[in-house]
Each structure stands twice: as structure tokens, then as C-alpha cells.
Amino acid sequence: MLGCLSGFQRLVLNESPKVVRTPCIIHWQILAMKMLPQELQEVIKSVISSVNFVKLSTLNSQLFLQLCSELDAPNNALLFHTKVRWLLTGKVLKRVFELCGELKTFFSRKARPQFEALFSDKSELQKIAYLVDIFAILNELNLSLQRPNATCLDLSEKI
Hints:
- By secondary structure, the chain is mostly helical.
- It has one domain.
- It is 66% helix and 0% strand.
- It is built from nine helices and no strands.
- Helix 3 packs across helix 8.
- The longest helix is centred in the last third of the chain and has 24 residues.
- The protein is elongated.
């Protein structure tokens, strides 16, 4: 539909050759997210791996749910991360940060030292907290960009 050779873009350019094409303003922040330092990208990958370890197994999910109920955790479920819904990354990170003590206990019982270390190390927890803040701001920005009747000038000003 948006192909520059035979889609909508080509039809518009045939009618008005001076039209300037720009990528969708809402998706610019996705590009900014990809520019995070490698160190923070590794933390995101580790967090997502740990969440997927818990969520991909029904037994692990049930054991984690039971652990959270025993410890009276504020939340008792992790959110499953998918790459398709990148907005979910911020919510996943926030939930993991809220449940970091429970996750540390869970991974120590499951003998997963790489995940246990992630939730034991203060510097790693600080990185996770920093990422939670970054993604909260990006999610808030994205939602504010999706309002009706917004002009390109309004949206670029917000960005």
C-alpha cells in the first residue's frame, strides 16, 4: 500500500512530484530506542529472557504465582514480552522491577545463577530502574502523539 514504486506513495508522487515523504512521527521513538547503549540493550535482553523463562513453562508460571502469593507481592504475574508490541517493553520492565525480590528468590530456588545475579546486583537493578523511567516517558509520549486531529507541527513539537 505504501510502496514507493507501485503503491500509494508512487500515486501521490505521480500527481504531485514536489511532495516530501517523511516516516511516521509516532515511530521515530522506536528508532531512538534502538540507539540505547549496548549495555542497556543487554539488560533489556536479560530481563526479557528471564521473563520468558518463567512464562514459557506452565510449571514455572504456576510456581512463580504461588511464590508471589506466599510473599504477598503487590503483583503476582509477569507480563509476556513480544517484539511485535514494543510498547509492552516498558510495562514488562516496570513489572519486573516491582517483582525483583520475588524473581531473585524464584531463580535462586530454580538454580539459575545468571538470572539470580541480574536481580541481586545493585548496578543491574539501577539499570533496570533507569530503563523503566525511559520507557515510561516514551510510552507517555507515544500515547500523546496518537490523539485525534493532531497536526504534524504539533507532533514534531512534542517530540
